[in-house]
Amino acid sequence: MSDATTPVAAHKDAIRAFAAARGWEPYHTPKNLVMALASEVGELCEVFRWLTPDESRAAPADPRLREAIADELADVANIVFLLSAHTGIDLSDAIRAKLVKNAVKYPPPAGPGGE
Amino acid sequence: MSDATTPVAAHKDAIRAFAAARGWEPYHTPKNLVMALASEVGELCEVFRWLTPDESRAAPADPRLREAIADELADVANIVFLLSAHTGIDLSDAIRAKLVKNAVKYPPPAGPGGE
Amino acid sequence: MSDATTPVAAHKDAIRAFAAARGWEPYHTPKNLVMALASEVGELCEVFRWLTPDESRAAPADPRLREAIADELADVANIVFLLSAHTGIDLSDAIRAKLVKNAVKYPPPAGPGGE
Amino acid sequence: MSDATTPVAAHKDAIRAFAAARGWEPYHTPKNLVMALASEVGELCEVFRWLTPDESRAAPADPRLREAIADELADVANIVFLLSAHTGIDLSDAIRAKLVKNAVKYPPPAGPGGE
After folding, report:
1. How high is the ipTM of this complex?
2. Which residues of chain B does A38 touch, with a Cβ-Cβ cutoff of 8 Å?
3. What is the pTM of this model?
């Protein structure tokens, strides 16, 4: 339940410090990070590519698959956090702004009362 | 500075509620979400594919590019949050576990004192 | 049935000429082309992300979906051809070399005689 | 120079026979193949993600990188060929149709004579 108490910024700070300690920051242009993101998402695709919908739903209950998914999801999330840090785009603000746009693009269906 | 105070779980709850209100949850198998993630990352790649390293660093200072990057980054982040919610994999736990593995795989360089 | 008679090199020549006529070649570094490939594959993912396995098999029979798939598949193929042209890696040679490696990695199952 | 003489269909036939001999065809829905494509493109992204434009241009001259690029490019091409085979979309026809659309969308610049 750690997501309940960890602010997004804590993850951004942790992954930046990790990269800085290894001298990786010169490589972390937004373009390179986006390409690294495509690489990590490719690893998630590798896990799921041949699974049926039901097998994909059951995958997190299999310990070996669960660990693979968790590892790749963490890699993807960390690059998202690095992109936010290096572009100076606050992720929470960007998400709220996009949700407003998406709520216009995809209005929720009318309720049973007809409104 | 909203990332400083927004816990990861708040984003997970918001995007799940958004999807549930639109009846999208039956489509959100882990496999489908991973494929949607590859689609959204493709849109980030579209923004950056022809930019030089310097142009990519300068992109967030251009208002039109900044909005495009923020929008796509938000879409990517929301799918990461949906994957976390639908797999039951706590993102913060997964990130910490992966950082431990990565610290072994990529040890930080020795300090100036030689240790 | 045009694939039966069109050599791979004809496609490579056509797409290079198309790009050269528009002054695009300076942008076509291998790195940029790979990123463009991820962008185009993302568009294919967009078409298929919410489909069931059966819907995905039926998609080419739907005229609108068939055109979308054909268009995106053509875009992907053209970037593969540009990558081959710009790296000087003959695609047919690379494919044959990789099939030999894959035949070792994934040996075909033994025949009905049991050997 | 093998691309000069190998028709596209020969590659489609070879990869289909390879997959059929291993009993893989039931997994090769268009959706699964697109997801496999995203996975293979991710491997190409992994090779190029941290390279500068110049390093990316020089990569094919490095024997180890050249082999890695050739292997991943072959994997990507083979999935494109499988997608063409399984959707019944002739790749050469699709490419020609898309080039016509793209020529309208991106007209070549006027020549030096002004026409």
Report:
1. 0.94
2. 38, 41-42, 45
3. 0.95
